[in-house]
Amino acid sequence: MLIDTFHFLRPLWLLALPVLWVLAWWLARRRGGDGDWSRLIDPELLPGLRLAAGAGKKAASPWPWLALAWSLALLALAGPAWERDATAAWRAPGAWVLLLDLSPSMAAADLAPNRATRARYAIDDLLAAARDARVGLVAFADEAFTVTPLTEDVATVRAMLPALAPEIMPSPGDNLAPALERAAKLLEQAGRRDGQVVLLSDGFTDPAAAFDAAQRLRNQGATLYVVGIGSATGAPLAGPRGGFALDDKGQPRLARLDEDRLRQLAANGGGRYVDLAGLPTLIATLRASSERASGATAMAGIEVAHWRDAGVWLLPGVLLLVAFLGRRGWL
User: Fold this and answer.
1) Cis ω on the peptide bond leading into residue 113 (within 30° of 0)?
2) Which of 281, 246, 319 is nearest to 69 (CA)?
3) Cα–Cα distance measured from residue 315 to residue 297, given in angstroms and rounded to the nearest whole number
4) Fewest CB atoms less than 10 Å from the CB: which of 98, 117, 165, 328?
5) How confident is the model over 149-192, as pLDDT tens digits?
6) Rounded to whole angstroms, how far apart are CA atoms 7 and 82?
């Protein structure tokens, strides 16, 4: 029955109804009769000062109609509903594994405040675009560590980001191959061998092993994308005891972005290389790839039911009342 299912989707709007009714009543009393002129002119003189054309007429009061228009508008905003619409539930559970380089060179400050922080900002943008995708996070330096496995709880992954910095790693290094192997294992455990792997790095020191691992990722159906963090000019590396690390000639050692090697790695992994400026384009590519790979299929036996908002049918009445209230001489 209608009475059993009728309700308002946004009932808090109804709290404004008594306020508007009281306001309409107050305006009707304040504007009725002589209005504010009786405060300035003696009641005996006021009838003689009225225009002759309007002396014998009394204009119709618009305030009840205005109160009705307000009421209909608020009822529409409250969202009356009594019927449901059922649609199939759709799901596109893409799988993204993010690899964060936390080698000592990621502390370089050629990108303010430093490369590691800018990489975390980029990961935050990726998480914001993940939507239904499951996301995993791996940090690596000399060794690789799983920060979070593949999960739909993007908030948990985001909560881990602030603590990730090169100084928390147990040993310095820049070995990428173990991180790629761990990404492949995470995808396999989640049953999504065709996932997307995104590396955020300034370079690595094990090219032969890394290229081989990237090729294996591609062979299992995954795609490797690379985001370069840093600049070609580079920045001095911090020394273990403060100051800058020095090379054999006593000059500060510079950490430069190894763009050529990163491009080759992306090609081996079947993806492509971008810098931070190209991150929005990469995000669009990731989302499109996830939708194509998952097929965005309907979930069997599951439907999403939502209430049909019938407030829209009250709007023609509101518009007619407002037009009627525009009659000359009422306001």
Assistant:
1) yes
2) 319
3) 37
4) 328
5) 999 999 999 999 999 999 999 999 999 999 999 999 999 988 87
6) 6
CB 244 within 8 A of CB 253: yes
For 102, 145, 230, 254, 307, the CA distances from 168, given in Å and listed in that order, are 9, 12, 20, 22, 50
Task: Please indicate, yes or no, whether the overall pTM of this predicted structure exceeds 0.85.
Answer: no
pLDDT digits (tens, 9 = 90+) for 299-310: 445 555 678 888
Q: Say how far apart CA 172 and CA 165 lie, in whole Å.
A: 12
Q: Where are the domains of the chain?
A: 2-83+308-325, 91-288
Write out the two tokens for 30: 């304040």
Pairing of strands 297-307, 84-91: antiparallel
Taking CA atoms, 122 is separated from 62, 186, 229, 275, 281, in Å, by 59, 21, 10, 10, 13
Residue 67, amino acid: A
Query: Percent helix, strand and coil across the chain, each rounded to 5?
Result: 45, 20, 30
CA distances 32 to 25, 105, 312, 329, 331, Å, are 10, 79, 33, 13, 11
Quickly state the pLDDT bin for 319 (edges 50, 70, 90): confident
Q: Which residues contact 283 (CB under 8 A, 6 or more apart)?
A: 125, 126, 129
Top CATH class of 91-288 equals alpha beta
CA gap 263, 228 in Å, rounded: 9
Here the tokens at position 23 are 């306001």
Q: Please report which confidence band the pLDDT of residue 207 belongs to, taking 50, 70 and 90 as the band edges.
A: very high
Q: Tokens in use for 140?
A: 């690596």
Q: Amino acid identity, residue 290?
A: S
Place of tokens 């002119």: 41
